[in-house]
């Protein structure tokens, strides 16, 4: 079974490698940067500041706790699994491959923004625009990690599952905090 999974990882890696072009690399480097720690932390700080400005301290705390939990789970799994990066990577990364931190950060942050905007933005055109951008980043950041060879498919899929689970728990906790 494990060999079968590794063969799927290898085949997907080679498929993406065959698709690479200079233009694609440039575009996907930009997209992958949006899922970087620096960008996600900056966006999260802006969102938390906005919540604090509104006096929504409990909500800010719940969001922050979810973000930290997501990050810690990914970090601990990287240490426990020790999966090396693949040979076809054009990205210089200093940590292990499994799971994908960029993917987990994008799924959690932009997934939460999808939820928040759906519940809190009344202007339909703005709500739709933000939702489209969130969905694009949720889709394209994981693809960028595969395209650039920074991760195997299983790294990305595991991150999607982990971050979606943390996102679900955070949203449920958020909703409970609004009732309190």
Descriptive overview:
The protein is mainly alpha-helical and about 180 residues long. The chain has seven helices and no strands. It has helices spanning about 1-20, 20-35, 35-55, 55-80, 100-120, 125-145, 155-180. Helix 5 packs antiparallel against helix 6 (about 125-145). It starts with a helix and ends with a helix.
User: What assembly state would you assign to the polypeptide chains in this entry?
Assistant: single chain
Residue-averaged pLDDT: 91
Q: Give the proportion of residues in helices.
A: over 70%
Number of domains: 1
SSE order, as H and E? HHHHHHH
Structural class: mainly alpha
Number of helices: 7
Q: How much of the residues is beta strand, in percent?
A: under 5%
List segments where confidence is low: pLDDT < 50 over at least 5 consecutive residues: none
Q: How big is the Rg?
A: 17 Å
Main sheet record: none
| Apparent shape | globular
Give the N-to-C terminal Cα separation: 47 Å
| Beta strand count | 0
